[in-house]
Sequence to fold (198 residues):
Amino acid sequence: MKLQDYFNYIAEPVNFVAANKILLTISSVIFGAIYCVIGAIHHGFVFMATSLSISITFIVLYFALAFADLIFGIYANVFVLKEKFESKKFIKKFLLIGFGLIVLYVSVSLVNTFLYYDYHENSVLKMFLDTVVFLLEGIKISLIIFLILYELTSLREKAEKLQWQELIHLLDVFLVPFKKVQDFVSRRFEKTIEDENK
Fold:
């Protein structure tokens, strides 16, 4: 084959669509709609990333985990376990996502309020404001970690229902270290309480 034959082969679908006006119109509308939806999603993610002062990667990861959990939950409950679809659980997931984003936004707003507070030079007030900003940033980072852990734990529960051992082992790689830390902190906390009670 010559190079011109390859170009003709590649151009065949384009020539077919260009010759058929109805197909050209339909494909233009469909691809235009897809482009608008992708643009709207992109602008929504960028707006959330700038409003929440967090990485867009976290937002994409969080939404991917949340919607994977939602889809696996519907599949596990309705199709595998043959349970009736409950709209309460469905709406609860969206409310949880919204609540997490609202709490993140409130913590960022409070950080910005205390960070850029217009005050006269006073070392005690500056130290107090810096401490409040530090605590609020800690709350924001903890909330981000807990949101991801919640979604991973929920995905693991769905994988257990579906008996997907590979996914369970993959999720355990991320969840087991946090479980170990939680158990360690719980033991230390209980030991401290026992020592104080003696």
In short: Residues 1-52 form one domain. The chain has a mean pLDDT of 82.
